[in-house]
Amino acid sequence: KNVLNASAPLPIAFTLKVIDAGTRQVPQAYSSLAWDSPEMVFLVARLIDQIAPLLGTRPWSYAIGNEIESYFARHPGEIAAFARMLEQVKPLVHYRHPGASLTTVWQMSAVGSIKTTYAPVFAVLDHVALTYYPLNPDMTVRPPGAVHDDLAYALQTTSPLPIALQEIGYPTAAVLGSSEERQREFMRSAFDAVGAAGP
Q1: What are the phi and psi torsion angles at 24 (to 5°)?
Q2: Residue 113: DSSP 8-state
C-alpha cells in the first residue's frame, strides 16, 4: 500500500505473482491443484477481488505470473491449464480494472517460444510483457547495441499484440564484462530502439 500511495496518481503495471520465476506462489493447500481447477480459479479470482479496491482504476497492465517460462520449463504439462485459468479470470480483471490490459510476464529469451510452446497462453492475452537483460548463458553481458535486434525480433514474433518492457536493465560489474559506461550505452541504445520501433 505504501508503494501505491507513493506513486499516486500515476498509472501502474501490476503483477499478481501466482508464479514468480521458477516457483508456484500459492498457499500449500493449493500447491497440487491444476491451474484450471475450480478451486484454483476461485483462489485467483478472490485475490483479484480483494486487491481491486487498493488498485482502483490505476492499472494499465495487469499481469498474472512473472517470468513464467522458468516455471513451465519444468512443468510443461501445466501450460494449457494455466491458459484456461487466465481465460476464466480475464473478464473479472477487465470488470474490476476497465482500463487494464491483461498479460503475463516472460523473459525476453522466451520470445521465440511464445507462439509455439506458450500458444494457449498467448491466445488469451491483450499484450505481451517482457523482462529484458541482455546476458549470455554464463551471465556475462552481450553488446549494448544488441537491444536493437532483440526488440525488432520480439515485435515481429509477438505481432499483432503490443509489447511492454516490464523490466529492463544492464549490469555494471567488471566480472561480467561490463562497466558503468557500457550500461550508459545500453540505456541510450534501448531508448533509441524503442523510439525507432514507433507506437
Answers
A1: -80, 120
A2: G
Can you read off the three cell numbers belonging to residue 121?
A: 497462453
HSE-CB of 131 using CA atoms within 13 angstroms: 17
Query: What is the distance between the terminal CA atoms of the chain, rounded to a whole angstrom?
Result: 32
> DSSP per residue over 20-63, as a string?
ETTEE-S-GGGTTS-TTSHHHHHHHHHHHHHHHHHHTT-EEEEE
Q: Taking the model in full, what pTM does it have? A: 0.93
The length of the chain, given as a count of residues: 199
Least Cα distance to 151 among 113, 116, 184, 198 occurs for 198
Pick the closest to residue 166 from 76, 106, 120 (CA basis). Answer: 106
**Rounded distance between C-alpha atoms, residue 191 and residue 123, angstroms:** 29
- CA 95-36-88 angle, to 5 degrees, is 20
- At 49-77, the pLDDT tens digits run 999 999 999 999 999 999 999 999 999 99
What is the spatial distance between Cα 88 and Cα 18, in angstroms, rounded to a whole number?
15
Pairing status of strand 12-20 against strand 23-24: antiparallel
pLDDT in tens, 3-46: 888 988 999 999 999 999 999 999 999 999 999 999 999 999 99
